[in-house]
């Protein structure tokens, strides 16, 4: 199967001379200033009336050259930069980077550090999914879930703030472990959060899961088959909603994930509704993981023995983790100096965004915003 | 002079029927002002209610609890630069908001706030209302086209298709209510708005309960269609913010944009008034036929005063709950004055109710009656206004094709069926 | 009660400033009609047409035919013109405004228009008896019922125009079906 990625490049944007009454083909610029493109994505839509004939994504409005910056920074100095890619899941970005460098240096973080990492990363996954749910529902026209999710996401950000002083771009981890020991009452806070948020998830679901309008707007919208999804390299909840049981936390366990008991929720139809259900189930699984981690958190050091100046041996490494949006991979080439020779990020949003064209062809304009929302892209990560 | 004014106040016919242009003009001015105030109040209530649905506070800074926010907004909009895009059709762009506004306000000439509290009682009242309120969409369509931009154009196309598909179901639902007015000895119905309410009065039942569940189904169809007609959530496709940035008014700014908003809210009040008139007994108080003793009349005539009294009480509680910081001093005084004003109105209304009871058919009694009529009508309309806000807070937006499908494949057949069954039942019963 | 008020009540539904409104409305209708055929921009034409239709509705009101006026507003100004605008908006205005406006058939059209006008004038001149000298004052309140009686008849008796009315509605139904079949590729 060959996904029709090339068609979009051939999108005929020239307005041809049209016969007198047949000029209802429209070219519409959705973005970069548009309320539903989640940042500065520009989608050029070719429409027949309201039907989408083709799309072309124009990206790069938020390009900051993160990968190039990496070549001019030491490994330690680059660590905060990764937070700025997927800024709603900064902890996951940091985890992926730190683990990649650790793997390159052949050190391993202590068990306690791994547990702290798991707790914070899973909290961040919940925060990211909550933000996704709010904005996605807002795109489909339901205003209220946005405020509910932001209210509850606040509790997670408070925990982050207490732990490392930052709420969004946390820079929570260091190469070799964690810099900060958990604050007094951390475990209590996390447990309180768990009991606080579980009923809230049900609250979101009462607003949406069986809502007729929500069902009509999301069922059979933006369908992507498992084969298409794999061919396009789509990962994360989008892939799992198509029925592929692929989660790096299970497939290639990293951090301390192999020690926890959790399910991988999958969908069947690969439509927007299944992606919604998968993410909601993932939030619940994350709660399970956090609960196990908090209860079983071991005592001990939080930092492995890492030299002051990080100088990995010559070599290259690819390490990927399951970020909230999909597979987040770091490919690092080391020439033995203090700075990476080349650093390449495989951002889940960027790869998932490629599926947009396949998913929206033949649908209506209103579905385009639904599909952009369901892909859960963050432009900071797409453009880097 | 007082005699002259009093004769107007005591009049038992509408100014239109009396052929008195001066009095009609006064009525028009009163209604225009009243609707504008209602729109301002609605603006504030919508922001506040929506905020409380969404665990927010809403406007809090301008005036106590943001009470002056609508005025600040209006001032801002009036002072804002009024941008007309260079590629726009200047004249049509200029005239489009006026079309919507005119259509929305013209409707009010036939809305019966009471048996004589209307500008005019046209004998084709309901037909006139449907016709004129459907003209409002012209303003939207023309605005979308004149902006010469793609998003407004799509908004305009959606709006016109939406209007055409919902008008039919709406009209059929209205016809089934009009059919019910012919259930009298003469067997002739009426299209007059006042006549429709009087028919409900004579038959002793609001049409929503007539031939249950037929009246109720027609009412539900109308109340769905009227949301679509006024472009409100969940049918707000013409201005779907997340899809079309702002839909048909994307290119509008400042005063001209505020005219669109004014027209939208005025139209909402207008269609709610149609629903109230046709199915909810218009100006009649609840249980008008069941509890019709003079004592009951008196009890129900206390309601306007009590409503204002409870509003004043809420405002006074707000005064006591204000923080004792000196920063809140002015807000506190403002809210206290507002509460006192509400309390004064409450006392006035109660006084009228009490005086109007003892006096025999005097002016006070008439006045009391008039207040009752307007109060119950406005209260019923206010319930609809609140529902509009509630819908917006609760539901996602329908997609365009789904909306059309509901209009043509669900509402239209049901309303046709209800119409036919109503006719059959009516013939059998009479 | 005030005497002035009484006289107002007694006069019933006295029309006000009739000649003024007549000339205003017919003037509007004529100006609107002229604008419809002279504007290069199709949307401007459509707007002018709406003005004309509304003015005609006003004239119906003055003729004590409120039902016809209401239907005129709903059907023509409300429904049909929205569809008109819907179609016009999809047309490329830039192109169409540059095209030649009157094709070679215009003398024929002019002749037809003149013939129609001659017909109207002759009908007015010859059939004097049909047109009363002064405005008929029908009882306004029963206008809708009168139309109903004419079209559908009263109990046990067919109306004057029942047959013609039903034929016309059948014709319209056929036209609707035809339009659907023509536009829909597969039913």
What key phrases describe this protein's structure?
heterotrimer; B: 430 residues; mainly alpha; 16 helices; 70% helix; C: 187 residues; Four Helix Bundle (Hemerythrin (Met), subunit A); 72% helix; disordered N terminus
Question: How does this structure look, described?
Answer:
The complex is a heterotrimer of chains A (384), B (430) and C (187). By secondary structure, chain A is of the alpha+beta class. Helices cover 47% and strands 13% of the residues of chain A. The longest helix of chain A is centred in the N-terminal third of the chain and has 29 residues, at 111-139. Chain A is globular and about 65 Å long. Chain B is globular, with a radius of gyration of 23 Å. Chain B has helices at residues 2-9, 15-18, 21-53, 69-79, 90-106, 125-146, 150-180, 193-203, 214-229, 241-244, 254-279, 294-301, 303-321, 329-358, 363-394, 400-429. Chain B has one domain (21-284, 368-429). In chain B, helix 4 packs across helix 11 (254-279), helix 6 runs antiparallel to helix 11 (254-279) and helix 11 crosses helix 15. Chain C has 187 residues and is mainly α. Chain C is 72% helix and 0% strand. In chain C, helix 2 packs antiparallel against helix 3 and helix 3 packs antiparallel against helix 4 (66-90). In chain C, 16% of the residues are buried. The model of chain C is unreliable at 1-13 (pLDDT under 50).
Mean pLDDT reading of chain C: 76
Cα(first) to Cα(last) distance of chain C is 69 Å
Report the radius of gyration of chain C as a whole number of Å: 22 Å
CATH architecture of the domain at 19-98 in chain C: Up-down Bundle
Per CATH, what is the topology of the domain at 19-98 in chain C? Four Helix Bundle (Hemerythrin (Met), subunit A)
The helix/strand class of chain C is mainly alpha
Profile the largest sheet of chain C. Answer: none
Low-confidence stretches of chain B: none
Helix content of chain C: over 70%
* Quaternary form: heterotrimer
- State Rg of chain B: 23 Å
> Termini separation of chain B (Å)?
51 Å
Order of H and E elements of chain C: HHHHHHHH
